[in-house]
């Protein structure tokens, strides 16, 4: 009999749980309630957990075990990808690379994750070997907006809903639109640079995949045929690994 399993990704801004089907649950990391979390999950027999917030991951795992729930906490060594390095490498980045290597058909790839931080990761694959080559990390859209608003006297805070309203090829009519266009063009330039860098350095046919909680807010991502957009990429990789482990 198959165990009722939830796949859980713990990020700096939010905790997302997926039942492996159509149901996703999202919780704020800063206002997280463990009891509220398990109440929402309902009857559960197993958790597969990955995260970048050790204290929160430990708390969820401890309470789960007390409730008799089997917990699998993913480690870097569980992911069948050769990392560029190990020290302080975020497991979410390696999980993204693994998932992208299963989805993208070409021999190379770029994964851009637009979350609390923006991560850009490059990889190559040869038969069954996937090699993570490294990448870049920079502040995410929310951090950029909050930093500007906090460090200046008159600049307003803009949010995701503002990003969704403005397109790249428009003139701003107010300061909030100017801020949004600044973010849009900065991130668009990041995509262009990632493509240029991949073209020069991967030296194999490649594709670009986008994920992350902020990605859908960007019009040029939603409408582009150049980029594959896959929400909750890391969670989908967790499910693949769970299926492989149960064979």
Brief synopsis:
With 247 residues, the chain is an alpha/beta fold.
Structural commentary:
The chain is of the alpha/beta class and 247 residues long. The chain has two domains: 5-73, Nucleotidyltransferase, domain 5 (2-Layer Sandwich), CATH 3.30.420; 78-140 and 177-238, Nucleotidyltransferase, domain 5. The protein contains eight helices and ten strands. β4, α2 and β5 (70-73) form a beta-alpha-beta unit. α3 (91-103) crosses α8 (233-245).
Brief descriptors of the model:
247 residues, alpha/beta, Nucleotidyltransferase, domain 5, five-stranded mixed sheet, globular
**Total of domains:** 2
Quote the average pLDDT. 90
In whole angstroms, the N-to-C terminal distance is 13 Å
Q: From N to C, what is the helix and strand string?
A: EEEHEHEHEEEHHHEHEH
- Enter the CATH topology name of the largest domain: Nucleotidyltransferase, domain 5
- Residues in β-strands, percent: 25-35%
How much helical structure, as a percent, in the residues? Answer: 25-40%
Name of the CATH homologous superfamily of the largest domain = ATPase, nucleotide binding domain
Task: Please state the second-level CATH architecture of the largest domain.
Answer: 2-Layer Sandwich
Task: Please give the count of helices.
Answer: 8
3D shape: globular
CATH class assignment of the largest domain: Alpha Beta
Biggest sheet strand order reads 3-2-1-4-5
Largest sheet: 5 strands, mixed
* Estimated radius of gyration: 19 Å
Give the strand tally: 10
| pLDDT < 50 runs, ≥5 residues | none
Structural class: alpha/beta
